[in-house]
Amino acid sequence: MNRLILVLLGALCVGQSVAAPRLPDVDTLQVSVRTIYPPELTHVEQAVKWLVEPLGYYVTTDYPAPQSAKSVLAQPIPTGAKMHRTMPVLHALQLLIGEDNTLIIDKQHHLISVGRGH
């Protein structure tokens, strides 16, 4: 019995190890999210942070973000964004800031900001 175990272990050690192929990178901002916000979130900035910080992104309003970022994020959460739906994070963010405003995403540094207008 011991000899059989040694033979099997030897065969495993001699065989070539083959690594699994690398999976493609996933754009975490494209994953689906359910837009049910906790009741304590009342402003756009709070909801945006609630969506993106678990994904490793951070919201910034400091330079070089547009000066309008603070005012856009200070708005109350729009009624249209409170509808309970499942959608990609990017779509939920766009609903929060308003379709007339622009999302600014730095994927390299994992930063998100917003700007008024297009």
How do you describe this structure in short?
The chain is built from four helices and five strands.
Give a structural overview:
- There is one protein chain.
- The protein is built from 4 helices and 5 strands; from the N terminus they run αβαβαβαββ.
- It has 118 residues and is of the alpha+beta class.
- The protein has one domain.
- Strand 4 and strand 5 form a beta hairpin.
- 19% of the residues are buried.
Structural class by sheet pairing and helices: alpha+beta
Provide the succession of SSEs: HEHEHEHEE
Biggest sheet details: 3 strands, mixed
Number of strands: 5
Largest sheet strand order: 2-5-4
Low-confidence segments: none
Quote the distance from N terminus to C terminus. 74 Å
Task: Estimate the mean pLDDT confidence.
Answer: 88
Strand content: 15-25%
Shape: elongated
Number of domains: 1
Helix content: 25-40%
Count of individual helical segments: 4
Could you name the key traits of this structure?
single chain, 118 residues, alpha+beta, 3-stranded mixed sheet, two-stranded antiparallel ribbon, 4 helices, 5 strands, 15% strand, elongated, signal, Toxin co-regulated pilus biosynthesis protein Q C-terminal domain-containing protein
